[in-house]
Amino acid sequence: MECSTGKFYAKRLEKYGPIYKTHLFGSPTVVIAGPERVKKILLGEHVLVSSVWPPSFQAVLGQGTLSMMDAHHHRLYRKVRSDL
Predict the structure, then answer these.
(1) pLDDT per residue over 40-80, tens digit each?
(2) What are the boundaries of each domain within the chain?
(3) Which residue stretches of 1-84 are H helix?
């Protein structure tokens, strides 16, 4: 038996296709389904797309957290932490 979340997602995929725009937490969001599409996006982060957290998440997580750092700053922070 499929859970209600799975049914909701399946209906959206059927209606809009594997790539569609919606709103989550008050921010415009693109939903991408399928491993080949997701892999292309993940491997091209900050080249094809950039990740942005909605203001509500930024307020909860805080500005200086690892989640809020871009890839460059995240690598620098990890290097500094590993040198300690």
Answers:
(1) 887 876 677 777 777 887 888 877 777 777 778 778 887 87
(2) 1-52, 53-84
(3) 4-16, 35-43, 55-61, 71-83
Entry pTM: 0.52
Return all residues near 30 (Cβ < 8 A) that are at least 6 apart. 19, 20, 21, 22
- Amino acid at residue number 19: I
Q: Which residue, among 46, 57, 48, has the nearest Cα to 24 in the 3D structure? A: 57
- Residue 64's region, left for phi above 0, alpha for psi from -120 to 50, else beta, is alpha
- Encode 46-60 in three state secondary structure: CCCECCCCCHHHHHH
Give the confidence band of 3 by pLDDT, cuts at 50, 70, 90. low
Which residues contact residue 18 at a Cβ distance below 8 angstroms, ignoring those fewer than 6 apart?
32, 33, 34, 37
